Amino acid sequence: MKVQEPKFRCGTEKAIKELVAKYDYPYAEWMQDWPYEIAEPSEIENYFKHYDEQKDEDKKFSLMEMLIQALTNIEDQREFDKNWKLLIPRIVKDFELHEYTVFYWSCFREKLKDGWKVTPYMRELWTQMKNEKNV
User: Fold this and answer.
1) Contact at 8 Å (CB) between 23 and 43?
2) pLDDT of amino acid 32
3) What is the DSSP string of 69-126?
4) CA–CA separation, 16 vs 89, rounded Å?
5) pTM for this predicted structure
């Protein structure tokens, strides 16, 4: 599937350091994939709550990366589905902020089978959001 890559975005050091302080998570300068390395499925409810309290877009961006990684790490399918349904409205509401993140997790450069657990869900969401934009 040929898809136009959106403008790149990544988490800011300030937002990450604030999240490190809130959750008492490790952080080192070399942790390029910090939100993916520290996300805990057991904390997903707290991530949702914290996300909903945010006005700061940079923190929302990093929290969304944490949410998606935590979701991906949930092994129980019913628990995964429950949390996916909670995640969708947040992504849709802030889609411009999370467009690159959805693109990233959609793994359009890979075969679907080579993606993550969340990849088929992200591809479907991407398609829905892009179709709505073009209507």
Assistant:
1) yes
2) 74
3) HHHHT---HHHHHHHHHHHHHHHHHTHHHHHHHHHHHHTTTS-GGGS-TTHHHHHHHH
4) 23
5) 0.92
